[in-house]
Each structure stands twice: as structure tokens, then as C-alpha cells.
Amino acid sequence: MEKVNYYSDEFKKSVVKEVLVGHISKDEARRRYGIKGKSAVLNWIRKFAPSESQEMKKTRLPKFKETTQLEAENKRLREELELERLRVLSLNVMIDLAEEHFKVPIRKKSGAKQSKS
Asked: pTM of the entire structure?
């Protein structure tokens, strides 16, 4: 037979506060504090912060959408960065070939003074 854990209301309220503030997730709270019931933390939220539990339902979907959008933007930006790296590499190779073929320095030397017109 499993041991049943009883938690004080103060403990429950402190866990609910941590979850609602965003310091930890419900699952993290269960793991951190050894809470056995899978829905215990959710029930505590409903009991001690009923208006916040409704707010959590409303904000969960937009945060998921926002995360998905950010991940998609991150992927797009990484692809653009890789294309720019390839572009720079190809331009450097073209310059190297042109300098070698035409025996003319194309790249500006660092620290070179610009001519006054």
C-alpha cells in the first residue's frame, strides 16, 4: 500500500506561487518536492488561485504559438546566415582567382590611406 503524503496549505500555496510566477513548471514542482499525484499541483492552483488557473489556460496557447513562431524565425535566420557565409566564401574565392589570373591586387590593404580627390 502506498504512503499518502499530506501537505500543509502553506506548502501548497508556496508551490502554487512558484508555478504561477513562472519560476518552475507544474512537472518541475512535482519532481522537486516529491509530489506523487500527477494533477495535485493543478488542483492546488484551482483551489488557491482560481482566477490564475483561468489565466493560465488563456495564456498557454499564445505562449506555445509564440515559441513556435520564434523557433521558425530562428531556423530561417540560421539558414540565411549559412547562405551569407557561403556567399562570402564564394566572393573571396572569386577575388583570389581574379588576383591570381590578372596579377592585380584587388583587396584593399588594411590601414591603406585613401586618396584625396
From this structure: 0.43
